[in-house]
Specification:
The protein is mostly helical. It is 52% helix and 7% strand. It is built from 14 helices and 5 strands. Strands 1-2-3 form a 3-stranded parallel beta sheet. The chain has a two-stranded parallel sheet with strand order 4-5. β4, α9 and β5 form a beta-alpha-beta unit. The protein is globular and about 70 Å long. Bound molecules: adenosine-5'-tetraphosphate.
């Protein structure tokens, strides 16, 4: 059975962008793939974060995973920091990725330019190395991610070529990024030229937002000149973003969404339809999230996930150690 692996880092309140670009797609793989979904808590340390917030965000993400339809019987849900092989393989792999290629990563450039030059952590720079380890430890065939993470998966593919060629064997499997056709990059509602992002939350819809607030945020989303509703991210970024949200949550194409609104020349009416569908999705989702948190089952889920993930990851780690010449003894 093929394997799928993905994760989310607990850096803040999850947004509708995280839901559409990642979360909602994770469950699609659990019936046909051996599905590994983790909470990337080590990745969350790459930017300064309050410890209490980090712990709370971590529990939230487990509950969101279940609310999004992941079944812990079918999907291995685990914490990255519960599997020490992630840190160990990171130490090995960092020797096979180059400073030049890491410094060209868009996420590093975007995040570091907002920071004081003297306070950019090494972890932020080396983030893609840790992510390569995440993917390769589980021999993942596919990695479902939003558009912004595609570059990191491509770097991982380069690493696989490099590593396998160097040791002249097919040690690592070549992972394929899977990017959703609709909603791979949801933009901020207040500035539709920038990504909706949990660590820079301007114009975000949060998955925990009160539903009245969600409606207000959508009704006051920045739109564009004119009154026609069609997809044109360059000239109509606000309307195009709302069309993406609508199409993705309705599970239809952008073309089909355009068709629905072709005779609607009132932005207010269109926004109301978008708000309705977001609320329709978030209502049961929030109820399930609260139910999981109240159930007290989070630790049980993580314990079982850690057991299964450690088993697979440690097997890969031993193969990697032997390949590079580290002495593995009984
Ligand atoms: N706006 C978005 N539209 C579509 N997909 C998105 N993702 C994130 N934002 C959007 C996808 O969500 C997954 C989890 O992302 P992550 O937590 O690992 O980090 P990220 O990609 O950097 O997401 P954020 O929300 O922007 O986090 P911060 O602000 O902490 O960096 C990924 O699959 C991502 O593509």
């Amino acid at each position: 059975m093929k394997r799928s692996l993905s994760g989310i880092k607990p850096t803040g309140n999850l947004t509708l962008g995280n839901y559409i670009g990642a979360l909602k797609n994770f469950k699609k793989y659990q019936d046909d793939y051996e599905n590994f979904i983790f909470i990337a808590d080590l990745h969350a340390l790459t930017l300064p974060i309050d410890p209490i917030e980090l712990r709370n965000n971590t529990k939230d993400i487990v509950a969101f995973y279940i609310a999004a339809g992941l079944d812990p019987e079918k999907t291995t849900i685990f914490l990255q920091s519960d599997v020490s092989a992630h840190s160990e393989i990171n130490t090995i792999l960092q020797n096979y990725l180059y400073m030049g290629e890491l410094s060209r990563m868009t996420q590093f450039k975007d995040k570091s330019k907002k920071m004081n030059e003297n306070a950019i952590g090494l972890g932020l720079f080396a983030y893609p190395v840790l992510m390569c380890g995440d993917i390769l430890l589980y021999d993942a065939d596919v990695v479902p991610v939003g558009e912004d993470q595609k570059q990191h998966v491509e770097l991982c593919r380069d690493l696989v070529h490099r590593f396998n060629n160097r040791y002249n064997k097919e040690l690592f499997k070549m992972p394929e990024p899977i990017i959703p056709k609709v909603g791979a990059r949801i933009m901020s509602l207040s500035d539709p030229t920038r990504k909706m992002s949990k660590s820079d939350p301007k114009g975000d819809i949060f998955l925990k937002d009160d539903l009245n607030i969600v409606r207000k945020k959508i009704m006051s989303a920045v739109t564009d000149l004119g009154s026609d509703i069609y997809f044109d991210p360059v000239n109509k970024p606000g309307i195009s973003n709302l069309l993406q949200i609508y199409a993705s949550l309705k599970e239809i194409t952008i073309k089909e969404a355009e068709e629905i609104f072709k005779d609607c020349h009132r932005y207010g009416e269109f926004k109301k339809a978008v708000a309705d569908v977001v609320i329709e999705v978030l209502t049961p989702f929030q109820a399930k999230y609260k139910e999981v948190l109240a159930s007290g089952k989070i630790d049980e889920i993580l314990n079982e996930g850690a057991r299964r993930a450690n088993y697979i990851a440690n097997k890969t780690l031993i193969k990697v150690k032997k390949t590079v010449g580290l002495y593995v003894h009984k």
